[in-house]
Amino acid sequence: MRIDRLRIFDVGLPLVHGFETSSHRKTSLDHLLVEATAADGTVGWGEVASPADPYYGSETTETAWTIAVRYLVPAVLGTEWETPADLEQSWARIRGHEFAKAGFSIAAWDLHSRATGQSLAVALGGTRTTVTAGVSLGIEPSIDALLTQVERQVAAGYGRVKLKIAPGWDAAPVAAVRAAHPDLDLHVDANGAYPDTAESLEVFRALDGERLTMIEQPFAPRDFVAHARLQAQLATPLCLDESIVDLADLGTMLALDAGRVLNIKVSRMGGLTAARRAHDVARESGVPVWCGGMHEFGVGRAANVALSSLPGFTLPSDVSGSDKYYARDVIVPPVVARGGRVPVPTSPGLGHDVDVDWIIENTSRRFDTAA
Ligand code: OSB
Ligand code: MG
């Protein structure tokens, strides 16, 4: 296989409901969509789901654009490859920039699975025909507003809800949601917002009594030791997200018992090959995994659905239906969840058509090059 043409679209879409985390609030998203055309005319799509600002990780839409245009495109264009892992070798010497790499990795996997006539899920080794989806809810202006959001998603059929927490928005809203929904599969995500202090420990002890499935990323990404110390004092499993960028990080988490659940994000790990490897290692180690989201448009969302069909993804993934985020998605049909479950497509590649007209209509800048 050889990619002879690459187009990159910088696409902005408004969110149907604003989303606030411990670091900031957003009402629209700007992701890069990568279209890779092979020598035989087969087309694959990928998505760079980097946030616009460097608050989740160090990347931004702008850095991803620069790395894509200056380094990834020249590495990929005209290179001969058999498997996506081969192609990924062409950019292996670029350090970091996992979100940018992930967009090209997804496009390579889409191309590869289309060329072999397989669904992306089957090409990755997926075994499920449907995946369980959860929703992630941001920080709301009041506990009442949060309860309304939870109610809406439970009514839409979702059985797992994750709540964003931050210092000052933690034990009280979580207790209110738990009281209103005693049997809900509930978990919290701090996005690393807590300092490693006695005061924080009090908050986590309170949350430990709320029957949460997990507490996600309480401390700063690189502080494995703080996570290990906290895990030893809680019954609730800790889940690591931002901390785990490569397999060495996963090794550290396992060696220190710094977390007992893994959130695998395709973007954070630099693509589908790395995400699958993390799944394999976690599975061998008995660590349950789920697929985290970055509010992906349909291309990245479909890749997350395919990945979530692997056998180790035993917890609900952040693959809620497109309609939770976007009034009109960039794929047709959009990702649809019914009763909290999303069917895994069986047609080749990502299993959805890409709505190029809608992409172009929402594109602020574009890059186009041929070998
Ligand atoms: O930590 O999972 C996170 C969105 C932006 C940055 C970080 C996170 C999130 C989400 C998205 O929670 C959930 C989704 O895509 O459904
Ligand atoms: Mg998270």
Can you tag this structure with a few keywords?
alpha/beta, lyase, o-succinylbenzoate synthase, TIM Barrel, 34% helix, seven-stranded parallel β-sheet, binds magnesium ion
If you had to describe this structure to a student in words, what would you say it looks like?
It is an enzyme of class 4 (lyase). With 371 residues, the chain is an alpha/beta fold. It has 2 domains: 3-117 and 355-370, Enolase-like, domain 1 (2-Layer Sandwich); 122-343, TIM Barrel, CATH 3.20.20. The chain is built from 12 helices and 15 strands. The strands form 4 sheets. It has a 7-stranded parallel beta sheet. A 4-stranded antiparallel beta sheet has the order 3-2-1-15. It has a two-stranded antiparallel ribbon with strand order 4-13. Strand 10, helix 10 and strand 11 (289-291) form a beta-alpha-beta unit. Helix 1 (61-76) packs across helix 3 (98-115) and helix 5 crosses helix 6. Residues 189, 191, 216-217, 241, 263, 292 line the site of magnesium ion.
Any idea what the CATH superfamily of the largest domain is called? Answer: Enolase-like C-terminal domain
Give me the side-by-side strand order of the main sheet: 5-6-7-8-9-10-11
Number of helices: 12
CATH class of the largest domain: Alpha Beta
What's the shape? globular
Using the coordinates shown, work out and report the CATH topology of the largest domain: TIM Barrel
Low-confidence spans: none
**In the residues, how many domains can be counted?**
2
Average pLDDT, rounded to a whole number, is 97
